[in-house]
Amino acid sequence: MARGSGRSGLAARPPIQVVDRLARILSLFAAGQTEVSIAQIGAELGLSRPSVHRYIRSLVDIGLLEPSFAPGSYRPGPLLVQLASQALGSLEVVERAGPYMRRLAEEAEETVVLSLWGGHGPVVVRVQPCPFKLVQIVVRTGAPLPLNSSQGLVFLAYLPDGALVQRLLAQFPPDVRAEIEGQIEEVRRQGLAISSRVIEGIRAIAVPVFDEQGTIAATMAFVGTTTALPESPDSSYARLLLATAQELSEQLGYRATSKRTQGR
User: What is the distance between the alpha carbons of residues 60 and 79, in angstroms, rounded to a whole number?
Assistant: First the structure.
């Protein structure tokens, strides 16, 4: 009895304080911030800069935070983004997309991938392989995708926060940034993105899905080999994907007369 009382009164107290402080750091993102600074964390916890650094190092080591573009600032890490994407699995767009994705996978005989915006890039939240193919392309749910992927280009083209898009593009060398900006404009003209640069031999065709406010809610994509998926934006695959994404958008409340919100 005495031993149990001693453990709960002494040994249990520091871990609770640590968990509370870590939770308060992560809760700073709940206000809609995409990154937090060391100064913000110090003010929130009332700790010195060296103490804040120790907490940050621990969070970075386990993947809950990662350094941001601005010196001394941090953003959600890959583990936090993955956990968030799994929680987002209950969102309406993810639930409603299921039947459309199954139909696409069967008609096109290719893998269909749904991605949501994870704060700094697309995150895969649902995958529908073709049930008829002997060899499947495996795409992991929760996997983050690069900004120069087809899904990334579609999000960059239609995200309503233009300032965020500019900050994300600022990480690239000038020549790469100019190329991506050209691709973004092409996505806006064609309504889709086609890329085979992320993984050699693999091509993705991605299109936007809009909600009732005209804001991009997700991207839907075919993922297949470069021999199976054509590069032409006028291919039957592209037309089928665009038509299906339009159907899903309309089920979410989007109408063609709605004004799309996108950053410039």
Answer: 10
Which class for 120: exposed (0-12), middle (13-18), buried (19 or more C-beta within 10 A)? buried
Q: Is pTM, for the whole model, over 0.85? A: no
Rounded distance, CA 159 to CA 117, Å?
9
Separation CA 32–CA 49 (nearest Å): 24
pLDDT, tens digit, for every residue of 32-67?
677 899 999 999 889 899 989 999 998 999 888 999
Interatomic CA distance for residues 97 and 69, integer angstroms = 34
| Closest to 36 (Cα-Cα) out of 85, 3, 77, 82 | 77
Nearest to 190 by CA among 241, 114, 147: 241
Q: Enumerate domains of the chain plus CATH numbers.
A: 2-76 (1.10.10.10), 83-251 (3.30.450.40)
DSSP 259: P
pLDDT in tens, 149-201: 999 999 999 999 898 899 999 999 999 999 999 999 999 999 999 998 888 88
Strands (E), the chain: 36-37, 65-67, 73-76, 111-117, 122-128, 193-195, 202-210, 216-225
Amino acid at 74: Y
- Is 168 in a helix, a strand, or coil? helix
**Residues contacting 13, CB < 8 A, separation 6+:** none
